[in-house]
Amino acid sequence: MGRRLGGELLRLRDAAGRTQQQAADVLNATNSKIVKMERGWVPMRDVDVRALCEFYGLDDPKAVARLLSLARLDRERRKVRGWWQDSPHPGRMSEYIALEDAASRVRTWELSLIPGLFQTSEYARSLAVSEGAGVWEDPDEIERLVEIRMRRQARLHDERPLEVYAIVWEAALRQLVGGPGTMRAQLEHLLEVAKLPNVRLQVLPFRAGGHPCMPGAFTVVSFAEAEAADVVHVDTISSTLWVEDASESTAYATFFERTARLGLAQRDSALLIDTIRQEM
């Protein structure tokens, strides 16, 4: 929310031809405060948002009200203290977990991994070890990582269950993370999770050929509030990319839907998962 609001204020300032220092003068603040606001690093007061909208020439009451609503939602979310904040070393995933906890729906595309919300503890543990190479070599660190991943899955079963639409490439089902035993248990768990009413799981088989989502995995996070645009999370080996521009997040959602049309139906996906499980 904060980054989206800051980005919109930045676009308004650029369109108005104003500098950060001029905006700071309007708020009787420092230039660094405007930088932090535009990057979404700090909560924003209604009075500051109104003052900047007026300075940038935004006089549409509905547009101003929408920005004020974003500011309110951002402030409310910052007040929430989630369980992940007490977990040791949640790492760069902490911000994603906070968003996931507040979300109403996620759409996730995975090339080589079982989605985190569907992983067994043994699969997650084996994955952490294989990812080690200087990052997760401490057994205690690995167990903390597994614990965090397991706690995330509570959202699938709570009183406001998270809706999850996952498309998984066939390669993720065949990759022997932890060996055949671990993978058999993982695929059995995947079949059980797929039965939940709030879960939709599709497999994209090898025979589907080329598809729009070949460049990489991503997750589209959606919220119940009408004012809240989708946020796209793209996790790489060494960094995280957040996409919060409405047009760009819509493009990811469109690619997801186009790829979904190439995937197997849910029943056929379950049959393929079970076939692969039996082969192991």
Summarize the structure in words.
With 280 residues, the protein is of the alpha/beta class. The chain folds into two domains: 2-79, Orthogonal Bundle (434 Repressor (Amino-terminal Domain)); 88-279, Endonuclease, Chain A, CATH 3.30.870. Helices cover 50% and strands 12% of the residues. It contains twelve helices and six strands. It has helices at residues 2-16, 20-26, 31-38, 46-55, 61-79, 94-102, 121-131, 139-152, 170-174, 180-193, 246-260, 266-279, and strands at residues 105-110, 163-169, 199-204, 218-222, 231-235, 240-243. The chain has a six-stranded mixed beta sheet, sandwiched between helices. α4 (46-55) packs antiparallel against α5. It is elongated. The N and C termini lie far apart (44 Å). The model has no long low-confidence stretch (mean pLDDT 88).
**At the third CATH level, what is the topology name of the largest domain?**
Endonuclease, Chain A
CATH class of the largest domain: Alpha Beta
Number of domains: 2
Strand/helix succession:
HHHHHHEHHEHHEEEEHH
CATH architecture of the largest domain, by name, is 2-Layer Sandwich
Topology:
Elements (H helix, E strand, L loop, with lengths): L1 H15 L3 H7 L4 H8 L7 H10 L5 H19 L14 H9 L2 E6 L10 H11 L7 H14 L10 E7 H5 L5 H14 L5 E6 L13 E5 L8 E5 L4 E4 L2 H15 L5 H14 L1
